[in-house]
Amino acid sequence: MNLKRLQQSIEKIATYSDAGVGINRLAYTKAEQDAKRYLIRQFEDEGLTIRVDAVGNVIARREGLRTELPVVAMGSHIDSVYDAGKYDGVIGVMAALEIIRLLNEESIQTLHPIEVIIFSCEESARFSIATVGSKAMAGVLPAIDLHALTDRDGITMAEAFRENQLDLEQVERAVRRPASFKSYVELHIEQGPILEGERLDIGIVSAIAAPTRYRISISGRASHSGTTPMNYRSDALLGAAEIALEIERAAKAEAHKGTVGTVGVLTIQSGSMNTVPGEAYLEIDIRGTDGSSKQMVIERLQAVISRVEQERDLQISCTLLSHEQPVHMHPDIVHDFEETCEENNIRYKVMPSGAGHDAMNMAGLCPTGMLFVPSQDGLSHNPKEYTSIEQIGIGTRLLKDFILKSAIVTTNALQNKCLRSS
Known about the structure:
Elements: H1 3-14, H2 30-45, E1 49-52, E2 58-62, E3 71-77, H3 90-105, E4 114-119, H4 132-138, H5 157-163, E5 181-189, H6 194-197, E6 202-208, E7 210-219, E8 223-224, H7 236-253, E9 260-268, E10 275-276, E11 279-288, H8 291-311, E12 315-323, E13 327-328, H9 331-343, E14 348-353, H10 359-362, E15 368-373, H11 389-407, H12 412-421
Parallel strand pairs: 3-4, 3-5, 5-15, 6-14
Antiparallel strand pairs: 1-2, 2-4, 6-13, 6-15, 7-11, 7-12, 8-10, 9-11
């Protein structure tokens, strides 16, 4: 494993960023597209063939001796949230590139083709919808009007697609058949404190929590703060505050099952110190690996909306952005990773993922697995996000081992036999 080269690859991608604190490489922006073009050149230099599908996923293919066999795939994403760190998603792509380089340097051929996939729009930061690329590939994009989604600058998703020579009307062309895949595995930072806290090297993901996300619009009456008595007010912000606090209470009641609830966005329209807020907007994320537990929080959200609307004389509309079910990783892949860790004295833990990942959509297409490496101080979506190259190296070695087992490494004699028979 060339750790120095792997570190340099991670640092290089970090140079592709818009202005701001940390990394700002949002989906479908020029910074992200420039980074993708750079990676395409790197994979082409390794002899891989490249295609970009209808949603912008980059698919780099290393051919196998049996081209008709289903592919063994690995990858992740390189788009970021606002003011991000440089490891989230990126290490899964850079580890895959390093594995391809090692296979070439060691002249290793496989029976199955290998694909590296750079998924588009994994983060929800820009358009409030996550894992767009893998959802499109798996044929599970939600039945919402994608054209109506806008970023904070008012740019629609359709406009962002056009800027990238893509057509939102054609996203169904990204769908792939389950038979085209043998397996998919993804390496990722944990984005939490557990591995570091327990002094472990690897997390083997057992299940991925599924997010349910809402955008809530609250309309009251904007009025003068000095001349409007308290009992005459229709305060949109206070309605939003009640909803936010109820989300916290509901999620805490289900915390023993790992369910969480977050109000990540709260915006006041035309706010000023001397105006009773007339419009407020919330974006809410509820997730967990226990479907019934998550549903309890959703039901309490619906109940508080009805109560606040009536008690505070407000009009509240609630738009469902996504509703996904928890996904379990394939037990055979989990077991394979466990065996490899034990054989190599690697300290590991089988654990759920609280964050959503492209792997949760790929699990609908093929046997899927996921590995975590520790995050220092549990930080992610933060410029201080950090994982040591040695820890990333351990994950990359495990990933390589699985890829070779799954793609079936051939000896020279077996290669010659396969070539003669073909």
